[in-house]
Write a structure and sequence with these properties.
The complex is a heterodimer of chains A (189) and B (223). Chain A is α+β, with helices and mostly antiparallel strands and 189 residues long. Chain A has 6 helices and 10 strands; from the N terminus they run αββαββββααβαβββα. Classes of the chains: A alpha+beta (189), B mainly beta (223).
Amino acid sequence: MKVFLLSFFTLSLFVSEAQVKFEREYRIPVDSVPAVSIEFMERLVPDRKIRWIREISQEGTTTEAKVKDGKRKLSVEFTLSGDLIDLEIEIDKKHILSNQAITNTLNKTYKKYKIERVQLQIKGYPQEVIDFYTKATDSSFLDMWFRYEIIIRGKKDQEFQRYELLFDYDGTAVKEYVIVPFKNDNLEF
Amino acid sequence: MRRLFFLIFACGTAFIHAQQEKRIGLLPSFNLRYSINEEWKTNMKIESRFLQIDMKQDSSDFQFYNLTDISFFIGKKIRIDNNFAAGYLFRTTNDGRIIHRFIQQFTTLQSWRSIKSAQRIRLDQTISAGTVTYRLRYRYGLEIPLNGESIDIGESYFLAHFEAIFSYEKSEQIIEGRLSPLIGWKLNNRGKFEIGPEIRVNRNRQKEGLTSNWLVINYYFTI
């Protein structure tokens, strides 16, 4: 019954009209970032070069820190007052392909699809998130509240569109946004 | 930003001094796009050549106005990032010549983080004074925002095109290269403005050719 309800909820979310994703991002100087966010980043990835971004979307205005830590690409989102919202780590798409619940939903929702990018979205208290990140192989991984943010190229009816999807770790779909393609007349003509 | 401007204009100047026979001028264009629906769109472009100076070793020739190209395209989106378009170009010159050109092109777009790129393959057939010239063109374009992660209203961007053109006619084959580094601004949701040099170098089989340097001014408008 639980599985049935989960599947029903997930599918009903995707069958309904997807929202169009609105997002505006621009660089901001470190001076306009709250000290608590800077301190968090210093503890998470010491001595790394961080790009500070202001992000405005339908979910509100946030501050984002983008950083490369070795081969890992991280994106950390904060409220404007500096509180941690989440940490996103770009991961290999094979993690999604091996998640049966998510692939089932994708197979039922889209006639065809291709996964382009996967990010693991981790939420928790700042110290928990730092502990998780610095000891990523720890069993605490399973206790963290994490979600998958996935970008796909998918075809529901006639045409392909690019979608941003958010899944809970158990495969429950949380959000679906259509990404508006960029106007490219100056690259095309 | 100042360094980028310097680099662009230094590039143009270097090409001007590197060649003996050259042409310089102004190349303004107006581009109008109308989306019929999600899949189909039309594009109209008007481009003219003004203030053209042809410089030879011992003489030079100035023309205030040289020619105008008017082109119409209809394009179809194939999947998300690929577009096919077919069009017709009508050219009228200041000495009364009329040229007809039929164009077919396929463009594939990629984006990586905030950088967008496009590869375009274009075939065209030009009919002028009873002769037909066939051209195969490949263009690579790169667009980089200069004020953030995306190009928002009022923000600027760097756009570069590199194009290789092979032109075939019964009596002559020409190879041409074009390089165009531009600075652009997104003025509002419908309009974009771009300015910068375009360097064109062509050679025939006898290694004879022409180098032309244009100041390109583009305005793009979406209905």
